[in-house]
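From the thread on structure requests for the teaching lab: each student submitted one protein with a one-line request. Submission from student K.M.:

"Model PRELI/MSF1 domain-containing protein from Clytia hemisphaerica, tokens only."
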Amino acid sequence: MRFNESVQILHHTWLDICSVFYKRYPNPQSKHVLGEDVIKRSLDENNVLKTTRIFAKTNEVPGWLMKFLPTATVYILEESHIDIQNHLITTYTRNITHNTLLSVEERCVFSIDTDNKELTSVQRRAWIESYFPGLKPVFERFGLSRYNSNIQRMHRGFTSVLGGDSSTRRTSTTATSQYRQSDVHVSNGIQSTL
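Reply posted by the TA:
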């Protein structure tokens, strides 16, 4: 299993990020997102907006990997919680297809940056695991590399949707990646409603 933990700083206010969170697709950086749909949306007793969405995504797939896939399209389930009162957006995301080859689970928390209230901090945790005998380490290395490149694409996409030029706005990133060997499946908090 590969575990990735990172903190990024978006050069936009939390309220700006919140205002475009459900409008982030399409954008010039998201040509890999083929479609999205809302499955469920509700407001809980604490006024937290809870939304479950499904995405159809594709990425360029190396020829060696395509031999193992029935299609390059993957379906992603995202549950998001927007807490206006506490200025938090929390997302739980996981792929629901191609799980044997590669399972990716992610938890993100978007919050007001503690050092600069005009910026937004994104804390990410991702668990990347393959259950494919013999090629598990290869698929996990590929999955981690693809995950990291998609994070950068997401940041450029947010900037694009907010009307900024991603070439003039820099995103600070500090990330650590660790390899953990474990037979225990790690869950990142995907809610039981999924």
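TA comment: Residues 165-194 have pLDDT under 50 and may be disordered. The two ends are 22 Å apart (CA to CA).
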